[in-house]
Design a protein that fits this description.
heterodimer; A: 329 residues; mainly alpha; B: alpha/beta; 6-stranded mixed sheet; globular; binds adenosine-5'-diphosphate; binds magnesium ion
Chain lengths: 329, 233
Amino acid sequence: MTRTKSLLKVPVVMVALALLYLGLIAGFSHNPYYMQILNMAAINTIMAVSLNLINGFTGQFSIGHAGFMGVGAYVAAVCSVFYKIPYLVALLCGALAAAVVGLVVGIPTLRLKGDYLAIATLGFAEIIRVIIVNIQKVGGPRGFLGIPPYTNLLWTYLFAVGTVVVISNFVNSSPGRACLAVREDEVAAESMGVNATKYKVIAFVMGAFFAGLGGGLLVHLLSIAHPTMFTFLKSVDFLIMIVVGGQGSITGSVTAASFITVISEALRKFEVWRMLAYSLVLIMIMLTRPQGLLGGKELTWEGIVNVPGRLRRFRLPKVGGGRVGTTGH
Amino acid sequence: MLEVKDLNVFYGGIHALKGITFSVREGQVVTLIGANGAGKSTTLRAISGLVKPRSGEITFMGQNLLQVPAHKIVSLGVSHVPEGRRIFANLTVLENLEMGAYTRKDKNLDEDLKRVFKRFPRLEERRRQVGGTLSGGEQQMLAIGRALMLKPKLLVMDEPSMGLAPLLVREIFSIIKEINEQGTTILLVEQNAHMALSIADYAYVLETGRIVTEGPAEELAKSESIRKAYLGH
Ligand SMILES: Nc1ncnc2c1ncn2[C@@H]1O[C@H](COP(=O)(O)OP(=O)(O)O)[C@@H](O)[C@H]1O
Ligand SMILES: [Mg+2]
């Protein structure tokens, strides 16, 4: 069946990425700056893939992903610094806290059809930021210093792989199908007997969980948590990653997250221009490939091996097959 | 099998259903005919739990449907083929059909897929094609096939003839009749009164939220006033 086949594809892509990462590490391990970029790429992969579950696969519109990252970051940091809880347990606490907050935000807003989630997540992320700024115990506006630097490339990479494996398994499972159906047509899904609210909440809470995990990893990488790390602009970064990679494509998110991390590092010197460059790239993508680089498709071995063949076919006027986004009206 | 009593539905200030009462007997094809805006889709949405009526009763096989959320009504055996088909445009034909059986506990779908493909051979040829690329008639077949995957006791259909060429309409309606003859009760909503009356056992005429006439379909088809208003001759 196609389902088992597609389940096998994702690990294959991950192994490919692992080899790429290993190659880079071998090349760059003497340079902590490059190592940092690789770590960031893995953390951003976690963020993008988990946001894609909510926005790309379930068709909701969350614009406060950095807020969940912030919850996970501060809770994990508090666990490590004040309670001396072991690193992995602290990460888990952060992720669970973010999931609980996701549940609280999600249940009232996801029952409604429409854009309430966007407004709610935007407001929620801001509230989280204000709360953090006002808690002196975690440094308030000065930031939370002295977080033990437990995160290294082994952990970020393992968690990135874990996130991809869990989320791609979920998407291909029966509840994952229900999420896809909700994205495609919520009313039709309900008339098939899918409890749309339930699956929207499941996807949202899962997404929040992994965002919280990403936050915990991040602050244990940088040794510092700061309210400005989890602003709306950060959420926009993750949105851009999934839009560029293709909403509904896990391998697209992985690729775009890694790529954008590197690009934005390269553009760091031109910080003021970064947003402008982002906007230009987004406009270009919207004009030329509104479905994102990969659309809803996944990168696969066959796909990569077939690239020459596809390029050849591309020159012919007719391009057959593919998933086309027409609606049934 | 299905009893609807004094049903009132509002959309904000719009009184869309003004106390309608009708019933569907097991084994029959019952049709609700009426012009655009009469309240036909609203009636079906109320039965499927997609809109909440302000007052009235809906009972299906002795159970009060107003207490049951939309996604549970399906598992009671009521399948809805919605207006405008609403197939999943980015999922393949096969995935659409699998979604149709979503609530079924047993996941042994092969036999039911075979049954649906036997009724709609064109769907089998296109099983790997995504829904959005099918023609209008094929999409309607897919919508019906998807609803049949649940093995419903009552199949509720909203304007299956909408936007289809006359030849296809005839094909779809003969399929509906066949489905009924094999034991599924059908509640059919149509603007195309002529076709609906030709396959129905009993019919209700809906006008701006009220039932104005009812009777055996054959009789209504002959009635002078119905012919003038709905059949155009
Ligand atoms: N979502 C809605 N919001 C407001 N009014 C609606 C809505 N849906 C239908 N209506 C109104 O309710 C009445 C009945 O509509 P409907 O049930 O769709 O009629 P039909 O299916 O017979 O064409 C119409 O006057 C229509 O304008
Ligand atoms: Mg209608």
